[in-house]
């Protein structure tokens, strides 16, 4: 059990902090709540203290609290300080090192690790001043979770929504045990889901990938302590809690996101990238004309896996691809491994009678430099756990010296 000092800032997202307290308590953590003055405009101290099962601290000069426990002590007995929601103003005050109220004083008077979950209007988030403060706070070693992109309370759309309580809880748990798990300190990149290649503003080329296997792999890697960057196309599976999620639409965007996320110790390419895109997507909807079919000319998409596997400098130590085949699975996948230049291929039989595409189970063959290894049919999450375990062994065994060819 850990002791979390939770500072609730004044933003509409403060209502989510009530659920965060509930989830933290349910996970066995002790929560000492602190509210800023403006937090009280959004949630009441009564509901906060009822959920935390403890008194809420609000004022800097609170004589009883000073007698019971100095405000400086308050932040030192905690294992982690969490600011959720962290408003633009709170981030600015933290970056400046101000001690203008109880919350900012606690944050200044401690060397306990601090995590913030920013929440604000998209323009405020994107403002150079906030981005400057964010860089300062990161430079000071402050952990940042979110914000997520989405519809804002103010009706605008973009990054600025506070992360969901479950995602904040996952980040807190990782922060509390940073050195656990064989992949701690390792960065793994995972691509997942389909890509959508626009034809015009309303139509696109896509495929049936649900993103289930990629998501399960990211979750398994997170369980082993890895830092995971999850680059996903528009998938139906919810992205994994606790990963750095980058949402993309097209193969070109996926390639750019992958390149931006490198360096990584390993990269797993589970995305079903569309092979082709329409050479020139139309800016306006193509009109239907009786008897006249639109001529769509296609262009080949970049092969993201082959590009990363072929990198002369900065190639991840282990590059893993997938091969979905309907016949002669092992021979086709073995040829694909050589063609793409990756270290491992996870091959699966996706012929319709297997029910694998879009289903919950998978039957794979792992193809490495040493040969082919059949895994029994199991759930996609069991496949993910086994792959993550193998990956941890391969990275550990290599001690950073393994070359692609040797794994
Ligand atoms: O060539 P094929 O699509 O069968 O190869 C599948 C593997 O290559 C998968 O790991 C997939 O994520 C990756 N891939 C890619 N970029 C593409 C096509 C496939 O990363 N454009």
TrEMBL record:
<feature type="region of interest" description="Phosphopantothenoylcysteine decarboxylase">
    <location>
        <begin position="1"/>
        <end position="187"/>
    </location>
</feature>
<keyword id="KW-0456">Lyase</keyword>
<dbReference type="Pfam" id="PF04127">
    <property type="entry name" value="DFP"/>
</dbReference>
<comment type="function">
    <text>Catalyzes two steps in the biosynthesis of coenzyme A. In the first step cysteine is conjugated to 4'-phosphopantothenate to form 4-phosphopantothenoylcysteine, in the latter compound is decarboxylated to form 4'-phosphopantotheine.</text>
</comment>
<comment type="pathway">
    <text>Cofactor biosynthesis; coenzyme A biosynthesis; CoA from (R)-pantothenate: step 3/5.</text>
</comment>
<dbReference type="InterPro" id="IPR036551">
    <property type="entry name" value="Flavin_trans-like"/>
</dbReference>
<feature type="binding site">
    <location>
        <position position="285"/>
    </location>
    <ligand>
        <name>CTP</name>
    </ligand>
</feature>
<comment type="similarity">
    <text>In the C-terminal section; belongs to the PPC synthetase family.</text>
</comment>
<dbReference type="InterPro" id="IPR005252">
    <property type="entry name" value="CoaBC"/>
</dbReference>
<comment type="pathway">
    <text>Cofactor biosynthesis; coenzyme A biosynthesis; CoA from (R)-pantothenate: step 2/5.</text>
</comment>
<keyword id="KW-0288">FMN</keyword>
<dbReference type="InterPro" id="IPR007085">
    <property type="entry name" value="DNA/pantothenate-metab_flavo_C"/>
</dbReference>
<dbReference type="GO" id="GO:0015937">
    <property type="term" value="P:coenzyme A biosynthetic process"/>
</dbReference>
<dbReference type="GO" id="GO:0046872">
    <property type="term" value="F:metal ion binding"/>
</dbReference>
<comment type="similarity">
    <text>In the N-terminal section; belongs to the HFCD (homo-oligomeric flavin containing Cys decarboxylase) superfamily.</text>
</comment>
<keyword id="KW-0436">Ligase</keyword>
<feature type="binding site">
    <location>
        <begin position="302"/>
        <end position="305"/>
    </location>
    <ligand>
        <name>CTP</name>
    </ligand>
</feature>
<feature type="binding site">
    <location>
        <position position="340"/>
    </location>
    <ligand>
        <name>CTP</name>
    </ligand>
</feature>
<dbReference type="Pfam" id="PF02441">
    <property type="entry name" value="Flavoprotein"/>
</dbReference>
<dbReference type="GO" id="GO:0004632">
    <property type="term" value="F:phosphopantothenate--cysteine ligase activity"/>
</dbReference>
<dbReference type="InterPro" id="IPR003382">
    <property type="entry name" value="Flavoprotein"/>
</dbReference>
<dbReference type="GO" id="GO:0071513">
    <property type="term" value="C:phosphopantothenoylcysteine decarboxylase complex"/>
</dbReference>
<feature type="region of interest" description="Phosphopantothenate--cysteine ligase">
    <location>
        <begin position="188"/>
        <end position="407"/>
    </location>
</feature>
<comment type="function">
    <text>Catalyzes two sequential steps in the biosynthesis of coenzyme A. In the first step cysteine is conjugated to 4'-phosphopantothenate to form 4-phosphopantothenoylcysteine. In the second step the latter compound is decarboxylated to form 4'-phosphopantotheine.</text>
</comment>
<keyword id="KW-0210">Decarboxylase</keyword>
<dbReference type="GO" id="GO:0010181">
    <property type="term" value="F:FMN binding"/>
</dbReference>
<keyword id="KW-0511">Multifunctional enzyme</keyword>
<keyword id="KW-0285">Flavoprotein</keyword>
<feature type="domain" description="DNA/pantothenate metabolism flavoprotein C-terminal">
    <location>
        <begin position="183"/>
        <end position="393"/>
    </location>
</feature>
<feature type="binding site">
    <location>
        <position position="275"/>
    </location>
    <ligand>
        <name>CTP</name>
    </ligand>
</feature>
<keyword id="KW-0479">Metal-binding</keyword>
<dbReference type="InterPro" id="IPR035929">
    <property type="entry name" value="CoaB-like_sf"/>
</dbReference>
<feature type="active site" description="Proton donor">
    <location>
        <position position="154"/>
    </location>
</feature>
<keyword id="KW-0460">Magnesium</keyword>
<protein>
    <recommendedName>
        <fullName>Coenzyme A biosynthesis bifunctional protein CoaBC</fullName>
        <ecNumber>4.1.1.36</ecNumber>
        <ecNumber>6.3.2.5</ecNumber>
    </recommendedName>
</protein>
<feature type="binding site">
    <location>
        <position position="322"/>
    </location>
    <ligand>
        <name>CTP</name>
    </ligand>
</feature>
<feature type="binding site">
    <location>
        <position position="336"/>
    </location>
    <ligand>
        <name>CTP</name>
    </ligand>
</feature>
<dbReference type="GO" id="GO:0015941">
    <property type="term" value="P:pantothenate catabolic process"/>
</dbReference>
<feature type="domain" description="Flavoprotein">
    <location>
        <begin position="3"/>
        <end position="174"/>
    </location>
</feature>
<dbReference type="GO" id="GO:0004633">
    <property type="term" value="F:phosphopantothenoylcysteine decarboxylase activity"/>
</dbReference>
């Amino acid at each position: 059990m850990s002791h979390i000092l939770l500072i609730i800032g004044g933003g509409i997202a403060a209502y989510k902090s009530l659920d965060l307290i509930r989830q933290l308590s349910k996970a066995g953590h002790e929560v000492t709540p602190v509210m800023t003055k403006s937090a009280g405009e959004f949630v009441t101290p009564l509901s906060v203290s009822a959920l935390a099962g403890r008194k809420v601290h609000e004022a800097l000069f609170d004589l009883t609290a000073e007698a019971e426990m100095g405000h400086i002590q308050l932040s030192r007995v905690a294992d982690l300080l969490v600011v959720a929601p962290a408003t633009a103003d709170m981030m600015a005050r933290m970056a400046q090192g101000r001690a203008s109220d109880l919350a900012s004083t606690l944050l200044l008077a401690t060397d306990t690790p601090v995590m913030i979950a920013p929440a604000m209007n998209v323009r405020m988030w994107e403002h150079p001043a906030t981005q400057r403060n964010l860089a300062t706070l990161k430079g000071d070693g402050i952990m940042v979770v979110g914000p997520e992109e989405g519809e804002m309370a103010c009706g605008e759309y973009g990054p600025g929504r506070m992360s969901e309580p479950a995602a904040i809880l996952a980040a807190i748990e990782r922060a509390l045990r940073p050195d656990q798990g064989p992949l701690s300190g390792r960065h793994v990149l995972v691509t997942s889901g389909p890509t959508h290649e626009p034809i015009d503003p309303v139509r696109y080329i896509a495929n049936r990938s649900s993103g289930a296997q990629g998501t399960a792999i990211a979750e398994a890697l997170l369980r082993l302590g890895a830092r995971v960057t999850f680059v996903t196309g528009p998938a139906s599976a919810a992205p994994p809690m606790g990963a750095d999620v980058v949402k993309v639409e097209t193969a070109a965007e996926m390639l750019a996101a992958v390149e931006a996320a490198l360096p990584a110790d390993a990269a797993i390419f589970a995305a079903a990238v569309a092979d082709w895109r329409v050479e020139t997507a139309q800016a306006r909807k193509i009109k239907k004309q009786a008897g006249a079919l639109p001529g769509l000319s296609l262009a080949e998409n970049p092969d993201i896996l082959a590009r990363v596997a072929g990198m002369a400098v900065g190639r991840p130590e282990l590059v893993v691809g997938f091969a979905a085949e309907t016949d002669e699975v092992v021979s086709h996948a073995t040829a694909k491994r050589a063609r793409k230049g990756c270290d491992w291929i996870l091959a699966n039989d996706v012929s319709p009678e297997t029910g694998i595409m879009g289903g919950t189970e998978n039957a794979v063959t792992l193809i490495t430099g040493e040969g082919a290894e059949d895994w029994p049919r199991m759930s996609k999450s069991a496949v993910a756990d086994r792959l993550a375990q193998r990956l941890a062994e391969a990275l550990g065994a290599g001690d950073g010296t393994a070359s692609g060819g040797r794994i």
